[in-house]
């Protein structure tokens, strides 16, 4: 008997066995080719629940989406109909969307499933989202009020709205569906996620930051975290309206950027450092050459003369990695007027300080720290990571000479993101870097009946020493900004 005949006989045997187990199955309905399916996998149309690993998971999935079978059938027909057109590089996005929606309506019309017009529109949108976008994440990504989307498991998705975490009803079909979506996201920027490289930082086309981690590192299934950015980047006016800044402090920061001070934006995870960095970058004059360096390109500068660089992880053989430090070194050969580094987190700190101290004034970057003083200590630690046997005093002298201003960003308990300190680096006293706070957040103002902080940035009444440098660059700052209470 040939191999083909043996395979056909085995298929007939499995079909007979399935019919015996499920006498009520619809004649001609598809039969599972395997006796078991992964927990949480959707049941085939008309198939037997006895073939599933977990009946409870099957009931939960079916109860959550009564049109799950229709969606899978229509999705399969759509892929079969369009085929290679989905990946045609010569077809524009709008042309692809038109073809998908036309084929989708045709496929839905061929189904015998009775549906209301609202259900038909919902099913149509969900299938289109899965083919053209990122499946159940698409409605969340379209919501302008969300700042974060967190996928803890294929059936557990949380969002951050107004600084608070909320669980949603959205869900992927199963783990494989989630993995396909992760692969679609990371492959668009030439990266990969697999067992040999189970972690990845990526970005969406709008610049939103993406982090993915999969088994074996993630024990309970793949995790996906998306930090959403607004379609229209926030401006300084937006930060003032949000209460993150006050008008006088915003005027000061604009003068500091135009006066080519070296600035660090410090803050914890999710505090809004990148947003503030983007706003500060908008103050850079349009006639300057700007080089931006990031792990995943998120900054969106509106100036014409911007060169965007992005680091690259190692390939599957562990070679070919290009780090932030490599890019900082290379950027100095590109004749930059400004170097903007998305985040300093390692030995690149040494090269950044060298750049600030060798004629590249006006550089801006971010780092993780809870206070301006902690930012200086962490900067010192990261310089030591470069492996250079430098004395601590020499490092601190470099830091004191290079950095002019630290902006501290904080996410408060009420969920709002505020700038809580604008601190000047004054110099050295002995072995200690001295600082002075120009503006501080007024916690003493308390909170309102809704738990929202009522305070804002308040001037400390001190005139910063960098005012003379700003004057040398033709930048004038109104002295009334520094009067006590001038920040309110």
Present the secondary structure layout.
Elements: H1 3-21, H2 55-64, H3 68-82, H4 93-109, H5 117-132, H6 138-142, E1 146-153, E2 156-161, E3 164-167, H7 175-187, E4 199-203, E5 209-213, E6 223-227, H8 236-242, H9 247-258, E7 263-267, H10 273-281, E8 290-294, E9 306-310, H11 324-331, E10 338-341, H12 348-356, E11 364-368, H13 372-384, H14 392-402, E12 405-411, E13 417-429, E14 432-441, E15 457-459, H15 467-472
Question: What would your notes on this structure say?
Answer:
With 488 residues, this protein is an alpha/beta fold. It has 3 domains: 40-132, no CATH class; 135-227, Beta-Lactamase, CATH 3.30.450.370; 236-482, P-loop containing nucleotide triphosphate hydrolases (Rossmann fold). The protein has 15 helices and 15 strands. The protein has helices at residues 3-21, 55-64, 68-82, 93-109, 117-132, 138-142, 175-187, 236-242, 247-258, 273-281, 324-331, 348-356, 372-384, 392-402, 467-472; strands spanning 146-153, 156-161, 164-167, 199-203, 209-213, 223-227, 263-267, 290-294, 306-310, 338-341, 364-368, 405-411, 417-429, 432-441, 457-459. The protein has a 9-stranded mixed β-sheet, sandwiched between helices. The longest helix is centred in the N-terminal third of the chain and has 19 residues, at 3-21. The radius of gyration is 28 Å and the shape is elongated. The protein starts with a helix and ends in a 16-residue tail after the last helix. The model is unreliable at 14-63 (pLDDT under 50).
For this entry, give a set of tags.
single chain, Beta-Lactamase, Rossmann fold, 3 domains, nine-stranded mixed β-sheet, six-stranded antiparallel β-sheet, 15 helices
């Amino acid at each position: 008997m040939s191999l083909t005949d043996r395979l056909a006989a085995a298929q007939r045997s499995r079909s007979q066995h399935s019919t015996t187990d499920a006498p009520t199955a619809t004649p001609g309905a598809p039969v599972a080719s395997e006796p078991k399916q992964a927990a949480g996998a959707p049941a085939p149309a008309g198939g037997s629940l006895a073939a599933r690993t977990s009946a409870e998971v099957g009931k939960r999935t079916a109860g959550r989406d009564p049109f799950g079978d229709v969606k899978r059938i229509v999705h399969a027909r759509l892929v079969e109909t369009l085929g290679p057109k989905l990946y045609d590089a010569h077809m524009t996005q709008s042309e692809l969307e038109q073809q998908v929606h036309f084929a989708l309506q045709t496929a839905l019309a061929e189904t015998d499933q009775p549906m209301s017009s609202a259900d038909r529109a919902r099913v149509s949108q969900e299938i289109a989202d899965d083919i053209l976008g990122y499946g159940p994440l698409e409605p969340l990504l379209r919501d302008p009020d969300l700042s974060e989307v967190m996928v803890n498991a294929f059936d557990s998705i949380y969002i951050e709205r107004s600084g608070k975490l909320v669980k949603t009803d959205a869900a992927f079909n199963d783990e494989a569906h989630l993995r396909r979506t992760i692969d679609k996201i990371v492959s668009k920027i030439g990266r990969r996620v697999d067992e040999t490289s189970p972690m990845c930082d990526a970005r969406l086309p709008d610049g939103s930051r993406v982090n993915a981690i999969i088994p074996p590192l993630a024990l309970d299934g793949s995790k996906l975290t998306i930090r959403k950015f607004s379609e229209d980047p926030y401006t300084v006016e937006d930060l003032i309206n949000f209460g993150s800044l006050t008008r006088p402090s915003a005027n000061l920061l604009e003068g500091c950027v135009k006066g080519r001070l070296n600035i660090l934006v410090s803050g914890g995870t999710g505090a809004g450092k990148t947003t503030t960095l983007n706003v500060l970058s908008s103050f850079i004059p349009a006639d300057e050459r700007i080089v931006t360096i990031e792990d995943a390109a998120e900054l969106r500068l509106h100036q014409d003369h911007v060169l965007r660089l992005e680091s690259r992880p190692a390939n599957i053989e562990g070679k070919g990695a290009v780090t932030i430090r490599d890019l900082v070194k290379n950027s100095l050969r590109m004749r930059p007027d400004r170097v903007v580094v998305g985040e300093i987190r390692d030995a690149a700190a040494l090269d950044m300080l060298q750049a600030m101290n060798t004629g590249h004034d006006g550089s801006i970057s971010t780092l993780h720290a809870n206070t301006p003083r902690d930012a200086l200590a962490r900067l010192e630690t990261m310089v030591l990571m470069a492996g250079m046997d430098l004395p601590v005093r020499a490092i601190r002298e470099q830091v004191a000479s290079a950095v002019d201003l630290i902006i501290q960003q904080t996410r408060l308990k009420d969920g709002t993101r505020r700038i809580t300190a604008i601190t000047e680096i004054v110099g050295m006293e002995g072995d200690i870097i001295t600082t002075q706070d120009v503006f501080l957040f007024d916690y003493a103002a308390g909170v309102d009946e809704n738990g929202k902080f009522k305070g804002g940035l308040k001037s400390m009444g001190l005139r910063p020493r960098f005012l003379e440098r700003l004057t040398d660059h033709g930048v004038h700052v109104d002295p009334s900004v520094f009067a006590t209470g001038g920040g309110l």
